[in-house]
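Teaching assistant's notes for section 4

Start the section by putting this record on the projector. Ask students to predict, before seeing the second block, whether Early meiotic induction protein 1 will look compact or extended. Collect guesses on the board.
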Amino acid sequence: MPGVDSQTAVAQEEAYLQKVHPTPEDIPKCMTLFDEFLSCSGTKNQIKAIYRYGERASCSHKWEDFKFCMTLKALPMEERRHAWLRRRAEWWANRRLTQSSEDVWDIRTEPLQNWPPATVTDEVSNANTVA
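Reveal the predicted structure now:
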């Protein structure tokens, strides 16, 4: 994203995540993260990844999330929440600032002009009045 440095992006993401996850109970539990890892490495997900991308899905980031969660177990709940939010904010900021396979289209800022074309609209309204 042009004009935004890494620290600013992390701060923006962290502010957003604090609003989305206002209490310690809102962050995922370690078992939830472990379930996400198992789901990622499951047969269905792997076949879908091979079909879509031509290679197996890498689930290492989900495993790293689970391991990170396990390291937080000894911390008080609010510190655990803050550490988790910081890690997620860094992940989202990195994702925003680097290119992705999803960066194919530019975001449209205004609606298309003359869409749908008048001929299509006329045909639909004529079909409704005849029937």
